[in-house]
């Protein structure tokens, strides 16, 4: 084995060990125990077996058929685990129903049959062996691709059900995580599939891609604090309806035009505490109360400024709800990046 081969083994093995270490952390050291974390740990463990087989096959000699077929069999398990992980991260109080266990039947059958593969038959390279092996290989990779697609469809439904503008920070983090996870699996799948299509890429690319993907996903999991979350963050509550009510009062009913509007007056109007009102506005508008009100006021002012010079700047300021010209100028420049006078000059009809 030359120096390059040694380096490839080290890099591939490093990713494998990192994935196993991450799985051990999720199962035994992570304080918050969730089914989604356990599923992610299982994915990492079985991917490690799969990648380990690839490393041994690429650099080892006379690898027993049982290792080759058992390694392939794990792909039949990783696909369902990915789907279940997506479900666990997006469904409230997710539990594995009994029917889900039917999805591991292909893995169980193929893994069991790998113990009965005769090495002499496998190495004979006869027509029957080639056809069987090729058929199995295609089925396994199509099966894996199918589950990646199913996981993507699950995520797409979640994205459609939760409007982007109203997603919480935790919901955004989970959606981003699952997008990256699915992309990572697509990269790994493509690298392996291209290899079986007339060796379009070297076989070792698979383990190398896995190492790169697992390091990247581990970093993103840490940054997004994804192991502290699960499907509970998608639990529907009254906050969205409350924000819709607040938005109607502010925008449709033009409550922002009132010069004395305050967090206290708005809270009394909706019969909520100032703390709750402020919390909902911050969560769903991504603005504090003052900026939330001023955003609508500036929008009103822009309409008046675009209509020509029939209103003075001070008149527009007061008519759009501001209590002073200075606060109007400051808010307008904050949202538009220019003064009201310059905006009028650039946008007058």
TrEMBL record:
PANTHER family linked to this entry: ARAC-FAMILY TRANSCRIPTIONAL REGULATOR (PTHR43280)
Bilayer-spanning residue ranges: 6-26, 38-60, 66-86, 98-117, 129-152, 173-194, 200-219
InterPro entries tied to this protein: Homeodomain-like_sf, HTH_AraC, HTH_AraC-typ_CS, Tscrpt_reg_AraC-type_HTH
Domain spans labelled HTH araC/xylS-type: 247-346
Protein name: AraC family transcriptional regulator
SMART domains associated with the record: HTH_ARAC (SM00342)
Any one GO molecular function term: DNA-binding transcription factor activity
Record key words, sorted: DNA-binding, Membrane, Transcription, Transcription regulation, Transmembrane, Transmembrane helix
Superkingdom of the source species: Bacteria
A Pfam cross-reference name: HTH_18
